[in-house]
UniProtKB/TrEMBL annotation, chain A:
InterPro entries according to UniProt: Acyl_CoA_acyltransferase (IPR016181), GNAT_dom (IPR000182), NatB_acetyltransferase_subunit (IPR051646)
Catalytic activity: N-terminal L-methionyl-L-aspartyl-[protein] + acetyl-CoA = N-terminal N(alpha)-acetyl-L-methionyl-L-aspartyl-[protein] + CoA + H(+); N-terminal L-methionyl-L-asparaginyl-[protein] + acetyl-CoA = N-terminal N(alpha)-acetyl-L-methionyl-L-asparaginyl-[protein] + CoA + H(+); N-terminal L-methionyl-L-glutamyl-[protein] + acetyl-CoA = N-terminal N(alpha)-acetyl-L-methionyl-L-glutamyl-[protein] + CoA + H(+); N-terminal L-methionyl-L-glutaminyl-[protein] + acetyl-CoA = N-terminal N(alpha)-acetyl-L-methionyl-L-glutaminyl-[protein] + CoA + H(+)
UniProt entry keywords in alphabetical sequence: Acyltransferase, Cytoplasm, Nucleus, Transferase
EC primary class: transferase
Binding partners and assembly: Component of the N-terminal acetyltransferase B (NatB) complex which is composed of NAA20 and NAA25.
Record Gene3D superfamilies: 3.40.630.30
Protein name: N-alpha-acetyltransferase 20
Gene Ontology MF terms: protein N-terminal-methionine acetyltransferase activity
Gene Ontology annotations for the cellular component aspect, listed alphabetically: NatB complex; nucleus
Bias-annotated ranges (Basic and acidic residues): 167-181
Primary role: Catalytic subunit of the NatB complex which catalyzes acetylation of the N-terminal methionine residues of peptides beginning with Met-Asp, Met-Glu, Met-Asn and Met-Gln. Proteins with cell cycle functions are overrepresented in the pool of NatB substrates. Required for maintaining the structure and function of actomyosin fibers and for proper cellular migration.
Organism expressing this protein natively: Sapayoa aenigma (broad-billed sapayoa)
EC number of this enzyme: 2.3.1.254
Taxonomic lineage from the root: Eukaryota, Metazoa, Chordata, Craniata, Vertebrata
Automatic annotation (TrEMBL), chain B:
Domain of life: Eukaryota
Similarity comment: family membership: Belongs to the MDM20/NAA25 family.
Name under which the protein is recorded: N-alpha-acetyltransferase 25, NatB auxiliary subunit
Xref: Pfam families: NatB_MDM20 (PF09797)
Database matches in Gene3D superfamilies: 1.25.40.1040
Assigned keywords, A-Z: Cytoplasm, Repeat, TPR repeat, Transferase
Compartments (UniProt record): Cytoplasm
A GO MF label: transferase activity
Function: Non-catalytic subunit of the NatB complex which catalyzes acetylation of the N-terminal methionine residues of peptides beginning with Met-Asp, Met-Glu, Met-Asn and Met-Gln. May play a role in normal cell-cycle progression.
Quaternary structure note: Component of the N-terminal acetyltransferase B (NatB) complex which is composed of NAA20 and NAA25.
Gene Ontology CC terms, in alphabetical order: NatB complex
Coiled-coil regions listed in the entry: none
């Protein structure tokens, strides 16, 4: 039982119960504003009846390369990436406060993001997750995602510890009828090689 | 340019110089050189060079872009607008330059010029976005207009007409344009028209956001009080998703509105455009029951329908209808809910909303009823029955949380409470079994047991049980060892250590929370409230710096994304971003760290490493300037970041928040006035020569003393308000907002000392302007002030005396107030010395004049005026007093080092063997922290003592 609504700047003042979790990164203001400016409809929060924030997820659609970041804007151009079947939804962050876990909330938010990406005509949805975050990896697997490739040392560690690898996980959408987008790559890639 | 990118600014300057030798007027090279100069700290040269180029009104892309970068780095975005204004004049058909001009205006918020620039762009290149940029600029003019009438009668109608024109010409292309149209109509309160747009053909474009059309329709129905439509639409949305709480709320709101209006559906046609309407309690009851039946068929259990039923009961009770509708007994329904969802961590939060429905006489029975259905095993006589799996543990935890919420633990006596603590800790340790495979980043399933046990111990502590607080820390440290990522453990440890006066462990705990960016504003208060007041000056400096860095970057960061929002047509986000920027700029915490940071810098440096005058100059402080937005201060603190399960009457209330903000504001006012008064000291001295003529200088100084006197009056008034506030003796909940330092400031006598010191400044000024002759009365006044100041400072020192940590009846007791008073002493003596140094500056010339006279006249009859002796005595007394305090601090240090805590913990009977290890750690941390405080305070005081020696005339 949740209220799903768009994320607003004021939520930044209230998300401590979610963000003090060690696996949830608190980003600088530009991070949030950038997504709110480009894809406000993709930044969703779930609110409990008492008004506590339960979790939020952020997803964006982007084409194959950096230039395509502006695809969903008034002035952007989307054709190129559609032709290359790289047009997809990307989950940037998905986090649920500890008390509201085990409710299928993450699954519900993922469904929503998939629905939006379907509507926008994407070929697949993808996300990055820490290799060590087994809970999340298993959850995504249950939701139909599979590991497309490993990105070496994608997450920079704080003090002295080695950088951590990420899985790039994907799920094909209905537009990708042959499910070409999720065929796993045989070799891991470096962060600088991903588009 | 490559050199600039690599950060090699010197090479960049050299290369640019080389180029300039060959091509004397290569604009771009000049600008690149200017960037190099700017980055190597030569701002003035850089600015001059840039203006040289700008004056030529360049139109080449490279120069323009480089200048834009330079101006941005100089924090002079307004210069960019000038640049492009000139450029579009010269190249009037450039889409690019016009669009740069628009964005440059956007950066500085020149809405009217944006509107014109947008239209100019549209005339050159008729693209829709440009047109709508112009429309949006009108909305921004309306938002920023002081005159609401003007905004409603001019800006918004104009914006509306502009959009209507496009609609008529069938030129609307994008969703963003429809959103903008809706936004205008909504702001004009033309809800009916807005509704027509959303429901009409244009509304078909609203597809990005989820249920965008439905949400907008609903908002308009509510504004128009069209309850039938509200009802029908929310009903329909609930049929689609019976778990979305917001629609239950609208559904119930509308049903009861319709009942109150005695609305009846039309006999023949459809109820309303949105379909069927429910307008009676019977229908609502039936609808909710249906949702529950439907839910039982769904694969994923939904909490919404069950909670909706409880919500309906609550609303019916509120209207005085008691159970006429066979909805069932809330107690039973909550019991059923627990059976269904008790193993979910959120069950407690869900039920918390509805516990008001239970009669207090039933609390114990209700809890008992819940306990009975939890599968616990191993319940032999006198033994704690334990859960066999995580689900049972979760259910049990839910009951424990509810027990606390219902006040069952609060009603217990000490012995019973301790028994519960034991049981909870037993359960906590048992529960760790289920989490053996948990990663470091995961929480343990049984963590809440530990937290709840600590909350009980905190209750005991507040009731006077000294030992309990040590046990709190012990259990939390134990918990943290098993669950190193638990933020709640850390936060609670932070609060308790601070209460005990131990800041050292806090710094580490806080940094392990990895709080960053916006969290500096929301939870930074946990650090900044205590670091300085407990004498951890270095840590205080650091935490202020982190926070300030965040706030300062806000301005630049938000402007960038306001621009992006224009580019991407996220128009509704533009006012939101601006409001967000304002909220951060007027943050209470921002104003506090700004003020405290400067006070701290002065305290640590002024007249030690640099002169007071230089310090103040480098902070660009001036007594006349007040940059705190008093009327708009925003309290962005997250005061509920720590969990608690307290009953409503003990919980943090709106009233507490209001009072805390009031207290913080009063305290901030005192601090800010103190800072401004101190910053006024050097302006009074003769050594500061204004550039203007002597006469103006004369006026200048006399108006400066007026400023100081006015500030002093304001300070007195602020102190009075502070006193009045404190008379209310407000007690915030222990985990609620921390009280400010104001109470200590007043009770220690530090406040009186500081105000007297500023009065003294005024007297000395009078002596200065009056001269030594015929000033017996002033001199006597000054002499008396000196005497009473010494007495007051001695009193303040007396309030610092006593042992910081004391062993009583086998438990430790800390006296953080002694530490806080010491810190106040150091601050006050520092102000006393700054004032003395002003006094010294005034007396010294008098003395040398007198000595000259003496020599000239060769007479011994020129008597030394009494003020010199008074001052000399005063300075000597200050020196003695400071030495005494330093000696006292040395004794404290020796005592702290000698204090043997190990023996102590062994004597404590409350503790289990395995806990002792943690108790030892905890006590060691507190001891070491006090040691650290004393050292920092002592060192600073020694430095201050050295400065006294310079004051002897």
């Amino acid at each position: 039982m949740t209220t799903l609504r768009a994320f607003t700047c004021d939520d930044l003042f209230r998300f401590n119960n979610i963000n003090l979790d060690p696996l949830t990164e608190t980003y600088g203001i530009p991070f949030y504003l950038q997504y709110l400016a480009h894809w406000p409809e993709y930044f969703i929060v779930a609110e409990a009846p008492g008004g506590e924030l339960m979790g939020y997820s952020e997803c964006r659609c982007s084409g194959g390369n950096v230039l395509m970041l502006c695809v969903f804007t008034v002035m952007g151009k989307a054709e190129g990436s559609v032709a290359r079947e790289e047009w997809h939804g990307h989950v940037t962050a998905l986090s649920v406060a500890p008390e509201f876990r085990r409710l299928g909330l993450a699954a519900k938010l993922m469904e929503l993001l998939e629905e939006i990406s379907e509507k926008k005509g994407g070929f697949f949805v993808d996300l990055f997750v820490r290799v060590s975050n087994q809970v999340a990896v298993n959850m995504y697997k249950q939701l139909g995602y599979s590991v497309y490739r490993t990105v070496l040392e994608y997450y920079s560690a704080s003090s002295g510890e080695p950088d951590e690898d990420a899985y790039d996980m994907r799920k094909a959408l209905s537009r990708d009828t042959e499910k070409k987008s999720v065929i796993p790559l045989p070799h891991p890639v470096r962060p600088e090689d991903i588009e | 340019a490559d050199y600039l990118d690599n950060g090699n600014n010197k090479m960049a300057i050299q290369q640019a110089d080389k180029l300039l030798k060959k091509h004397k007027d290569l604009h771009c090279a000049k600008v690149l050189k200017a960037i190099g100069l700017q980055r190597t700290g030569k701002q003035d040269e850089a600015y001059a060079l840039a203006q040289e180029v700008a004056a030529l009104e360049p139109t080449d892309d490279n120069s323009l872009q480089a200048l834009t970068i330079l101006y941005r780095e100089m924090h002079r975005p307004e210069l960019v607008t000038k640049l492009y204004e000139a450029a579009v004049k010269k190249v009037p058909n450039s889409e690019e330059y016009h669009s740069h001009l628009f964005m440059a205006y956007a950066r500085v918020g020149e809405y009217k010029k944006m509107q014109q620039a947008g239209m100019a762009l549209y005339k050159i290149v008729p693209k829709n976005p440009y047109y709508f940029w112009s429309v949006m600029s009108l909305i921004m003019q309306s938002i920023s207009a002081q005159d609401e009438n003007l905004s409603k009668t001019m800006f918004l109608p104009l914006a509306e007409r502009m959009v209507e024109k496009m609609v008529k010409e069938d030129k609307i292309e994008a969703e963003a344009e429809v959103e903008l149209y809706y936004m205008i109509l909504e702001r004009l309160e033309k809800y009916k028209e807005a509704l027509d747009v959303v429901r009409g053909k244009l509304g078909e474009k609203l597809t990005s956001e989820l249920q965008s059309r439905e949400n907008k329709c609903m908002a308009m129905y509510k504004k128009l009080r069209r309850w039938p439509e509200c009802n029908a639409l929310s009903r329909r949305l609930l049929l689609k998703n019976s778990d979305d709480w917001q629609f239950y709320i609208t559904y119930f709101d509308s049903v009861f509105q319709l009942i109150d209006e005695s609305w009846t559906p039309p006999a023949e046609e459809e109820h309303c455009v949105e379909g069927e309407v429910h307008c009676s309690v019977e229908q609502a009851v039936e609808f909710i029951e249906e949702r529950i039946t439907e839910e039982s068929k769904s694969s994923r259990p939904l909490r919404g329908p069950y909670l909706a039923k409880l919500e309906l009961i609550r609303r019916l009770r509120h209207r005085g209808c008691n159970d006429g509708y066979k909805l069932g007994d809330p107690e039973e329904l909550m019991f059923q809910y627990f059976k269904k969802f008790g193993d979910k961590p959120c069950c407690f939060t869900d039920l918390k909303v509805f516990v008001d429905l239970l009669p207090p006489s039933q609390y114990t029975k209700f809890i008992q009823q819940l306990l009975e259905v939890i599968p616990l095993s191993g319940a032999a006589e006198n033994e704690v029955a334990l859960p066999g799996d995580i689900k049972a543990l979760q259910q049990h935890l839910c009951v424990v949380q509810l027990s606390r919420l219902l006040g069952i633990y609060h009603a217990m006596d000490k012995k019973e409470k301790l028994t519960v603590v034991r049981e909870l800790m037993f359960r906590y340790r048992h529960g760790l079994e289920f989490g053996k495979s948990c990663l470091k980043t995961e929480l343990q399933f049984s963590d809440y047991y530990c937290l709840l046990a600590v909350h009980l111990l905190l209750d005991l502590w507040l009731e006077g049980e000294e030992a309990a607080v040590w046990q709190c820390l012990t259990l939390l440290e134990e918990g943290l060892a098993h669950s190193p990522s638990n933020a709640q453990f850390k936060l609670l440890l932070i609060r308790i250590y601070c209460r005990l006066g131990a800041f050292e462990p806090v710094a580490e705990l806080y940094s392990s929370l990895d709080a960053k960016h916006i969290q500096h504003d929301t939870i930074g208060y946990l650090l900044t409230r205590y670091a300085e007041s407990l004498g951890h000056y270095a840590a205080a400096s650091q935490s202020c710096n982190f926070a300030l860095r965040f706030f300062h970057s806000n301005q630049k960061d938000t402007s960038e994304y306001i621009i992006q929002a224009y580019k991407y047509g996220a128009f509704e986000k533009i006012p939101e971003f601006i409001a967000f920027r304002n909220r951060l700029n007027s943050s209470l915490h921002f104003a506090q760290v700004r003020t405290e940071r400067m006070l701290l810098d002065l305290l640590l440096e002024a007249n030690i490493s640099t002169s007071l005058e230089e310090s103040i100059k480098s902070m660009s402080l001036s007594p006349e300037e007040d940059d705190i937005p008093w009327k708009d201060l925003r309290d962005n603190r997250d005061l509920t970041v720590l969990f608690n399960w307290d009953p409503k009457d003990r919980d943090i209330s709106e009233e507490h928040r209001k009072l805390s903000l009031e207290e913080e504001t009063l305290w901030l006012r005192i601090r800010s006035l103190t800072l401004r008064l101190v910053s006024g000291l050097p302006t009074l001295s003769h050594t500061v020569q204004p550039k203007n003529s002597e006469k103006a200088a004369e006026n200048g100084i006399s108006s400066r003393i007026d400023t100081i006197r006015a500030l002093l009056q304001q300070l007195e008034a602020a102190v009075d308000s502070g006193k009045k506030f404190l008379e209310q003796k407000i007690q915030y909940p222990v985990l609620g907002p921390p009280p400010t330092r104001m109470a200590g400031f007043l009770s220690s006598g530090s406040c009186q000392c500081q105000t007297s010191l500023f009065y003294l400044v005024s007297d000395i000024y009078e002596l200065d302007t009056n001269g030594l002759e015929d000033s017996a009365e002033i001199q006597e006044r000054i002499g008396n002030s000196f005497k009473s100041l010494v007495e007051r400072l001695t009193d303040l020192f007396n309030k610092c005396k006593g042992d910081l940590i004391e062993v009583r009846d086998g438990t430790l007791k800390t006296h953080p107030n002694l530490l806080e008073n010491l810190v106040f002493f150091v601050e006050t003596i520092s102000i006393a010395l700054w004032v003395s140094s002003y006094c010294d500056g005034v007396l010294r010339p008098f003395k040398s004049n007198l000595q000259k006279k003496k020599k000239k006249k060769k007479e011994s009859s020129v008597a030394m005026p009494p003020v010199f002796t008074h001052f000399l005595d005063y300075v000597t007394e200050l020196q003695t007093l400071t030495s005494n305090v330093i000696d006292h601090i040395k004794r404290l240090e020796i005592f702290l080092t000698a204090l043997k805590l190990e023996e102590l913990s062994l004597r404590d009977t409350l503790l289990l063997q395995e806990e002792k290890k943690f108790t030892k750690t905890v006590q060691g941390k507190v001891q070491s922290s006090y040691h650290h405080s004393i050292q920092e305070i002592g060192e600073l005081l020694k430095k201050r003592l050295d400065t006294i020696k310079k004051l002897k005339i």
